[in-house]
Each structure stands twice: as C-alpha cells, then as structure tokens.
Amino acid sequence: MRGSPYTPGAGHTPPVLAGREYLEAEWREMLSEVGGAGRKRAQDTILRGPRGVGKTVLLSRFQQLAEEQGYDTITLQAAAGVGGIVEGIVERAESRLRQQRPAWQRAKDALQRLHAINVTAAGFGAGVTINPADTRPNPVQPETLADTLATLAQEIRSDAPGGGLLITLDELQVCRATDLTLTAAALQRLNVEHPESPVVFAASALPNIEDVLRDAGVTHPDRLFLVQPLPVELTRSAAHLAIVEPARQKGVTWSERGVDKLLDATHRYPAHLQLFADQTWKAADGPHAITAEDVERGLDRAEAMVETRTLDPRWMRATDRHAQLLAALAVATTTSPDSDYVTTAQVSHLLDRAPAEWSVARSELINEGDIYAPARGKLAFTVPSYAPYILRNYEARRGQARLELTPLSVMSERALSQERSHTRQLER
C-alpha cells in the first residue's frame, strides 16, 4: 500500500507518541508553574536513554508544548568539533534580533555581555556580527550567562504572561567538558540569584550522561537535573497503540495476530516499531486491512534493512576485543531471556577475566552506543536484535582475528555451568 503513516528514521516524530503521555503531562504542568512562579518551580530535565528510544522526538515535543504556553526557545545541537553553548546562544540571538523580536531587542544590553555580539551603528536587528574567535575576551562566566538568560526570560514573559525561556540541547553527552560545567553552574546561579526568572533547561543524552557530567566536574548532577530514563522497550499496550492508531486514522485495520508478530519481532523498540510497521504497510496487499502474512513479508524487508544499515556497520567498526565482549554479552543475554540485562559477573565468568581486564572495552562500547548500563553492574544491548546477529557472525570474525578470542562453544558451556550452579543454590 502507498501513503504509509509511519515515520522511520532518527528524530522523525511518529504519528502517535505512545507511552510518553505522563511525561508530557508532567512537563506541561511544570511549565505552567514556572511561567507563574519562576525558577523555583523549574525541573531542568535530561531525557536519558540509548539511541532509538525517541529522546530527540520527546525533546522536540517538550519544545512544542513550551511554545504553546508562550515560551521562546533556544534549541541547540551538540556535535563534536562545533561551537559551544555560548556560541549557540549567540547564533540564536543573531536570528531573533534580525527578526526584530521585541523581547530580544529589549534584552540587547544583557546579550552584549555575552561578549560575542557586536552591534553596528544601525543597532540590533539591522546588522549583527559575531566577533572573530581571536578577538573575544575571556570566556563567559556562569554569573554572566545566568544574568543574561534571566533578563531575556523576564522580557519574554512581559510580552507573553505565563511564558518564559526554554533552552534545549540534543546529545548533551557530546558537549565539551567546559560547556557542561558552564551550563550546570549557570543553572545553579539562576536558582540562587534569579528564583523568579522563568527559565527552563531540557536535554537529551545517552545512558552514560551522569558519568560524563561527573567526569567534567559537575558535582551532584542528580540534584541539579531531573534525569528521566526512557526504556528500550515500550509497554505492550503503548507499542500496540503506536502501531494500530496511525493505521486506524487512515481507515486501515491490523489483525491482532499481525500486531503480535510485529511486537515480538521488534521487542517493542521504538525505532524498530516505526521501521517494521512502515515496511509492513508497503508490503501489504490492502487496501483496508493488514494481515499476519503482510507482516511476515514486511519483517523480511525490515530485518534486512536493520542488518545492512545498523548492525553491519557497528560490527565492522568493533575491534577484536569489542567483538569478544559483545559475544559474551550475547551469550549471557540468550541464556537469560527473561531478564532485561546481564550482570558484569556473568560476563566476567564467560570471558574468564576480571571486570577490570575488560573495563576499557566496556567503556568504549558504551560511548559508541552499542551497549548501555541500565544500573551499576548491569549491561544490555541498545539494539535488541544485535545479540542474535552477533551469535551468527562471531565465529567468522574470530577466525579472522589477530588476537586469540574465546570460542562461542566455550562461552556457552560456561554459561550453562553458571546457570546450573545458580539453580542448585536456589534449590538448597
């Protein structure tokens, strides 16, 4: 069928943002309180989760909800090799000033204190240039950034009662350490020195963000930010709604058997739900119903796409040490299918190595986004289908490796031995 309602791809907003309703409701209520009472009601939020769970989509939804309540927004995207937080704010200021935004015009003196803006003789809005990097004075201090944001937010609220200023930052974990500490310190100064200012901060990040913040020198990030984890799997009811409702709006029904097949195949992983549903739609005979047979055809197409676009590149860039650790994690995962994670003790047993001996590879795989730590001492794959893929490809990789890698058969035997030992302990 043509005209698929599903939206596969990074950052694309699905037609039904299922499973996030409670987060939207809490965010909307918090914005209302900040719009009236200021920072003392703010909850600066970090949406934390592996890739593909909808962090960027939800962050965009937060922005939309804020703008509906009269907030102006500064949207920033962190990326390696690009400018920092202040540079991003300055670029947004250039745009707003050229658009003759009244609140930004009135806040021009405060914005000048960020030291990266020159005002021409014609004034703000008629010609704004950014100073060359080598002519900028000392870096902006947290107090200066906080004062600027507070002033701008107050001017925005004067035009839109109940509004304020929202700053969003996608991929927070990529920020330079100096930007992370500056942002944290500025938010803290806002809390202390500008409790009435309607400023809110929201970001998205990978699961290791708290370690990244601490490594950057941000003390007690859990006290400054509300870190909201987004699960890898939606609940079955939320995933069902995400699949069925967009089709219903187009007058198309899914068979329950077909929906069950798709939910099982995707493990209710948000990114794969959209991709697999999209491919099923395109494979369906239609015009008014999607059958289990349609799903079978769609799954074949979608699984091939996941392998070539996602899993093959990840596997090819993995080092031999990475591949061995991933294989151990895959064996442990399949040995404990009812668990959402495996423990570092399980992995160490399969590798016959202490955790310290593979901690570097673990950290590198977490930073790459291949695995994540849902809690201390626990590990899981970010993409659920990665485990069976690794089990299919590891032995070929081991045969070509420059290092001596542990065979799958040895890992599997160790896993079974560990499971038998665990069962005996429970029976005692």
Describe the structure.
A hairpin with an 8-residue loop joins strand 3 and strand 4. The protein contains 18 helices and 12 strands. It is globular, with a radius of gyration of 25 Å. The strands form 4 sheets. It has a 5-stranded parallel sheet with strand order 2-5-6-1-7, with helices on both faces. It has 3 domains: 21-229, P-loop containing nucleotide triphosphate hydrolases (Rossmann fold, 3-Layer(aba) Sandwich); 236-312, Orthogonal Bundle (Helicase, Ruva Protein, domain 3), CATH 1.10.8; 318-427, Arc Repressor Mutant, subunit A (Orthogonal Bundle), CATH 1.10.10. Helix 12 packs across helix 13, helix 14 packs across helix 15 (344-351) and helix 14 (320-335) packs parallel to helix 18. It is 56% helix and 11% strand. The longest helix has 26 residues, at 292-317. The model is unreliable at 116-137 (pLDDT under 50). With 428 residues, it is of the alpha/beta class. It starts with 20 loop residues before the first helix and ends with a helix. The protein has helices spanning 21-37, 55-68, 85-98, 102-106, 108-112, 142-159, 177-193, 209-216, 221-224, 236-248, 256-266, 270-283, 292-317, 320-335, 344-351, 355-368, 386-400, 408-427; strands at 45-48, 72-77, 117-119, 128-130, 165-170, 199-205, 226-229, 253-254, 289-290, 342-343, 371-372, 378-381.
Low-confidence spans: pLDDT under 50, at least 5 residues?
116-137
Global outline: globular
N-end to C-end Cα span: 58 Å
CATH topology of the largest domain: Rossmann fold
The CATH architecture of the largest domain can be named as 3-Layer(aba) Sandwich
Q: What is the rounded Rg?
A: 25 Å
